[in-house]
Amino acid sequence: MAADPLDPVRPGGEVIARCRRLFEPALREAVSVLHPWGAMMAAFTLGWSDVDGRWQDDGGGKGVRPAIALLSAEAAGGDAEPALPVAVAVELVHAFSLVHDDIIDNDERRRHREALWKAYGVGPALLTGDALLALAIRQVAGRPDAMGYLSAALVELVRGQTTDMAFEQRSWHGPDQVSTAEYLDMVAGKTGSLLGAAAAAGVAMGGAPQFADRMWDMGRDLGIAFQIVDDMLGIWGDPGVTGKPVHSDLRREKKTLPILAALSSERTAARELSTILVSRTMDDDAVRRAAHLAEEAGGRAAAQALAERHLASAMDVLDECLPDATDLRVLCESLLNRVN
Amino acid sequence: MAADPLDPVRPGGEVIARCRRLFEPALREAVSVLHPWGAMMAAFTLGWSDVDGRWQDDGGGKGVRPAIALLSAEAAGGDAEPALPVAVAVELVHAFSLVHDDIIDNDERRRHREALWKAYGVGPALLTGDALLALAIRQVAGRPDAMGYLSAALVELVRGQTTDMAFEQRSWHGPDQVSTAEYLDMVAGKTGSLLGAAAAAGVAMGGAPQFADRMWDMGRDLGIAFQIVDDMLGIWGDPGVTGKPVHSDLRREKKTLPILAALSSERTAARELSTILVSRTMDDDAVRRAAHLAEEAGGRAAAQALAERHLASAMDVLDECLPDATDLRVLCESLLNRVN
């Protein structure tokens, strides 16, 4: 749940870097109103300072969500500036969710450094997460159009996270098993909703509210595609690049799409995979074997196909509503490359 | 930080009960959209069910915050109904803050039953708190007037909680000691801001937005007064009535007003109190002795005087803006009685 599928360095970084220059001053200003202690923790979790509050810049998150908000506004009206509060808000909500997720999942590392709770304690970290969310809401409190999408995304985000957590208790087989439809509904909330809010509120602030509902769907499809890719990277990716502990999803019995797809196949590998998962003895060898079997059973191919289908749906919306959205397309295409 | 100064049973309950009948159906409807597991945890923390999800009604919170919102609207325009979303929102924000506070403070009991994290685990409880906040925001997302006050209150609430937590690390004496002004600023955020939002957004929704800023001040003063009273009850109150563990604030080195006031006096008792606090050996005898010395040094009288002063300021606003607000006045007066 704690993973950020949009974090790793990728091509198309030029567009993101331009957006980052636009929104980062506003983000820093938003955070500056916090209690000094809270501001120090926020700066740490946003990658602006080390654990003692000394200035550094390790890049932090790459800012895909604010970039989508700003580029959606540009595509709508030519100017990103009206969407700045939305850009800041979605980045703050994202930071809030990572801080709380790391507490919930007991993850000690984030972006190659300590998780906030590990560095400052659970209580202070929890409160800093709340502070980031409060700041996010204040950014768009006076803009009901944007606020509607942001608040809907928040409800969906938490619902998706709760569902994901509940899935860990579900069986791999039988009447209790997680269906693909349930998985898609979960990731649409967990990962898709905030991208949907960024796109919808961005385009609305940019002057084209008539496209906002379509852009909400666009962002959700984008989010689904990238959560699937992230699930794949969690099984077959290089932990040195992803920053995720190797195979942590498998160890936690996370119901990820590649595994669900593999289990539903008729191949021999699926039966052996099932035996390993049901036995719950997930040592290093078993986990490596499970990853291999999931690929052999067709889980990787099925996941990639589904991710591409959702990405294509997202691109269809852009074609239809914002055919001149060059930079937004560049950004989405660069994200697409992670699939290939 | 976890205390709710407005919780204990008190006179004036008739007005609160009437308000509760108004807002509780809307509150239940708001919570019903949660994931079933989240809804079960929400129902537990709101006092609607036991830990296994079986229906019960232990009263939960008394609903002072929604009552203030509804009565402010009534006083403004004669009808409480337009303020229903505000009433639901402030109760949800209050519930969110209690759930997170209990995690932060490691408090195992709340309202004479297990705290949510104790019953279901830290991760699920944290997420349920987030869910309650998300629902609160959605209630008023489309009403920028109300949203402005609610989001300001959220930022202030978290800032006050962070300050309160930071105070625990501060010294009782010397350049690092907490001043009365700092204390008042902290409780205005921690306890006052949500009452301010209830009153301001309530009166705005009721049709008198011209009074909203004054009612924000009114609510904050009310909150300050009642946090001071709560601090007093935490030292000299009956734990069987307050539901708080006896002397927990003293044990935690919470910088509460009665103690700060006692320490600033010139009396002999103040010096002995200071010695006990600085020694940090807060066993049962020491804590009892400290409570006695704080009263002897004048801390109780000073706290009561300050609480009464802030309550009087709050009543002045009502006299001026809403002289016909009979029920709101009854509610405030019944709360006043806790001081006397």
CATH class descriptor of chain A: Mainly Alpha
Helix content of chain A: over 70%
Give the termini separation of chain A: 23 Å
What is the CATH architecture assignment of chain A?
A: Orthogonal Bundle
Oligomer: homodimer
**Cα-atom Rg of chain A, whole angstroms?**
20 Å
The CATH topology of chain A corresponds to Farnesyl Diphosphate Synthase
Write the layout of secondary structure elements.
The structure is a homodimer of 340-residue chains.
Chain A (H helix, E strand, L loop, with lengths): L12 H19 L4 H10 L18 H14 L6 H22 L3 E2 L2 E2 L1 H5 L1 H19 L3 H24 L12 H26 L6 H25 L2 H4 L5 H4 L5 H7 L4 H12 L4 H13 L2 H23 L4 H11 L4
Antiparallel strand pairs in A: 1-2
What can you see in these coordinates?
- 2 copies of one chain form a homodimer.
- Chain A is an all-alpha fold and 340 residues long.
- The first copy, chain A, has a single domain, classed as Farnesyl Diphosphate Synthase.
- Helix content of chain A is 70%, strand content 1%.
- In chain A, strands 1-2 form a two-stranded antiparallel sheet.
- The longest helix of chain A has 26 residues.
- Chains A and B meet through helix 4, helix 6 and helix 7 of A and helix 4, helix 6 and helix 7 of B.
Provide a quick synopsis of the model.
The first copy, chain A, is an all-alpha fold and 340 residues long. In chain A, 70% of the residues lie in helices and 1% in strands.
